[in-house]
C-alpha cells in the first residue's frame, strides 16, 4: 500500500470529471501515474471503474533471473528501495586462481576448455577476459576471468568448474619421469 499512489489515483478519478473543461490537468494527472510505471491499461482501468486499485503487480525494468529476494510479503518498503536482485545470466564468468609460474601460459582472448561436475562428459569453450595485474602475495596467485556463453542456462552462479588449456611449453625432454614405486607417502606429504 502506498499513500502517494493512492492519492494519485484519486486525482485521476477527480480529473476525469474535469476532462472537458481542464484537459491540461487531466493529461498531467495521467502522466503522474505513468511516472509510477503504471501501464495505459491500468490507468484506463482506474479511470473507467472510478475505483482506486490497491494492489499492483511489480515489473522489473530489465530482463533476467532473480538471484536474491530482498523483501518478504508484508514488509514495509520505501520509495526507491530495491526488492530483488536481477542478473542477466546469458554470459557468465568463471574465475580461477593461477599460480605465478603458470601466468605466462595465459593471454587475454585465449580459448579455454571448461568442464563442470554437473556435465563431466561435456566440454565448453570460453575466452580469457581478464588477468589481474597484481599478484596475491598470500596465495601467490593472480585472478583470471573466463567469459562463458550461457544462453542454455547450463552454468549456475557459484558452480565449480575446471579449466584446461593447450600448452606448447611442455615437451618430452623437459618432463621428469619416475616409477610410481619411488613415491613414498609419509602421512603428511609425498616424497621421492
Describe the structure.
The chain has 192 residues and is of the alpha+beta class. The chain contains 3 helices and 9 strands; from the N terminus they run H-H-H-E-E-E-E-E-E-E-E-E. It has 3 domains: 3-49, no CATH class; 60-88, no CATH class; 91-167, Beta Barrel (Elongation Factor Tu (Ef-tu), domain 3). The protein has helices at residues 3-17, 23-35, 40-49; strands at 65-69, 84-87, 91-99, 111-116, 124-131, 141-149, 161-164, 184-185, 190-191. The longest helix has 15 residues, at 3-17.
Following the backbone from N to C, one meets helices and strands in this order, namely: HHHEEEEEEEEE
Structural class: alpha+beta
The helix content is 10-25%
Shape: rod-shaped
N- to C-terminal distance = 72 Å
Q: What is the percentage of strand-forming residues?
A: 25-35%
Q: Which CATH architecture of the largest domain?
A: Beta Barrel
CATH fold title of the largest domain: Elongation Factor Tu (Ef-tu), domain 3
Instruction: Say how many strands there are.
Output: 9
CATH class wording of the largest domain: Mainly Beta
Count of individual domains? 3
Largest sheet: 5 strands, antiparallel
Q: What average pLDDT do the residues reach?
A: 87
Radius of gyration based on Cα positions = 30 Å
Query: CATH superfamily membership of the largest domain, which one?
Result: Efflux pump adaptor protein, beta barrel domain
The count of helical stretches stands at: 3
Strand order of the largest sheet: 3-6-5-4-7
Low-pLDDT runs = none
Amino acid at each position: 500500500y502506498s499513500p502517494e499512489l493512492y492519492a494519485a489515483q484519486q486525482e485521476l478519478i477527480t480529473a476525469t470529471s474535469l476532462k472537458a473543461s481542464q484537459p491540461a490537468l487531466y493529461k498531467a494527472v495521467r502522466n503522474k501515474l505513468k511516472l509510477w510505471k503504471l501501464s495505459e491499461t491500468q490507468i484506463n482501468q482506474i479511470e473507467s471503474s472510478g475505483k482506486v486499485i490497491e494492489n499492483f503487480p511489480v515489473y522489473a525494468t530489465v530482463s533476467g533471473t532473480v538471484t536474491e529476494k530482498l523483501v518478504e510479503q508484508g514488509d514495509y518498503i520505501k520509495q526507491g528501495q530495491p526488492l530483488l536482485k536481477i542478473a542477466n545470466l546469458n554470459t557468465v564468468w568463471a574465475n580461477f586462481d593461477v599460480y605465478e609460474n603458470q601466468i605466462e601460459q595465459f593471454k587475454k582472448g585465449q580459448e579455454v576448455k571448461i568442464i563442470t561436475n554437473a556435465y563431466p562428459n561435456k566440454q565448453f569453450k570460453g575466452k580469457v577476459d581478464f588477468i589481474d595485474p597484481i599478484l596475491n602475495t598470500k596465495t601467490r596467485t593472480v585472478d583470471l576471468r573466463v567469459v562463458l556463453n550461457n544462453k542454455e542456462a547450463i552454468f549456475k552462479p557459484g558452480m565449480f568448474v575446471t579449466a584446461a588449456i593447450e600448452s606448447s611449453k611442455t615437451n618430452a625432454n623437459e618432463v621428469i619421469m619416475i616409477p610410481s614405486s619411488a613415491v613414498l607417502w609419509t602421512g603428511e606429504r609425498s616424497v621421492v
